[in-house]
Amino acid sequence: MNEPFGKLRHQIDEVDSQLLQLLNKRAALSLEVGTIKAKGKFPILNPKREKDLVLNLERLNTGPLPNEHLRRIYREIMSSSRRLQAPLTVAYLGPKGTFSYYAGVEALGSSLDYIPQRDLESVFQAVAFGKTRLGIVPFENSLNGGVGQSMDLFLRYDVSIQAETYSRISHCLHGRTQDLESVSHIFSHPQALAQCTRWLRNTVPQAELVPTVSTGAAVELALQHPGGAVIGHVTLGSGATLRCLAQDIQDEPDNWTRFLILTRQPYAGEARDKTSLLLTLPDKPGALQRVLTIFSEAHINMTKLESRPLRFEKWKYAFFIDVQADLSVPDAQPVMDRLRDQSQSLRVLGSYTTWSA
Ligand SMILES: O=C(O)C(=O)C[C@]1(C(=O)O)C=C[C@@H](O)C=C1
Description:
Elements: H1 3-40, H2 47-60, H3 67-85, E1 89-93, H4 99-108, E2 113-117, H5 120-128, E3 134-141, E4 145-146, H6 148-156, E5 160-168, E6 172-175, E7 185-188, H7 190-195, H8 197-203, E8 208-211, H9 215-224, E9 228-232, E10 243-247, E11 256-263, E12 274-280, H10 287-297, E13 302-309, E14 317-323, H11 333-342, E15 345-355
Parallel strand pairs: 1-2, 1-3, 5-15, 7-8, 7-9
Antiparallel strand pairs: 3-4, 3-11, 5-11, 6-9, 6-10, 12-14, 12-15, 13-14
Helix pairs in contact: 1-3, 2-3, 10-11
This protein binds prephenic acid (PRE).
EC number: 4.2.1.51, 5.4.99.5
Domain Chorismate mutase: 1-89
GO biological process, one term: L-phenylalanine biosynthetic process
């Protein structure tokens, strides 16, 4: 029976035992790095180093292993490596199975401790008050724009961005009913409702749309209503006796969310891909234009500009600006000085690494 495979399986066993030895050799080296990090109070997670390491392996890779598989394998190797160095906790908008949860696992691997929070504010609090080392929050969506709640929380909590990661979002409608016609109420986070507006209006026009603070709250409410349904990740209903009534219901198939990985303290190190700034400007003609001129004169590309109301002062705004430059390095000091001169207040939310999707 085994004859056609016998020799090949023997060779695979040989390779696996070599891989095992090498993985343990790597783990031992990582433990040594961990000891140095603990002494020097360096952060365990170094997204820049991880990104460079994987890009280098992709360049060396001659196949037949596809780079996509290589990336996934290394995500788990690195996740285990960090876990060996120290326990690493990540706060996310729960419950398990939300898009935030999967974005965390896609970026950071499965060897971390993911701690669900009941709302986005609790994620910011967990990081700001040191209850967890990391947090992951949605920041903007390719269909629906900025996540206002996350932006407002940056105004209130002192946290720093350590990395950004992009996750593809495919929404499913999970319900208690047998069919779509019997759905009477759809409970969902407002972001998910907004990303599925057209489908909801055309397919379940009879259903009342009820925004909730989180997908967890939506599931609880859906379970209390005979015609209740909830929008979420394909796996969401599995533990909650809800069945998937329709898949991929977002208005455009190519739906992506940008998530930010937060830490308490900024970490200045090697050059990063991007910087996020939060500024308020004097109420004078041309104030914003002067800031934009600083970037254009320094040949710095701006990838986002969005304003949010300053809640404690009406008709005043905070500007969120993302640029493709590391403004934490000494070379960027002149740009930072000019920005400070032109702003009423200026906060660097982080200079950080982009993890590819
Ligand atoms: O180089 C480091 O700083 C390490 O801790 C090692 C290592 C790795 O396993 O390669 C682990 C965690 C860091 O996020 C980056 C890389």
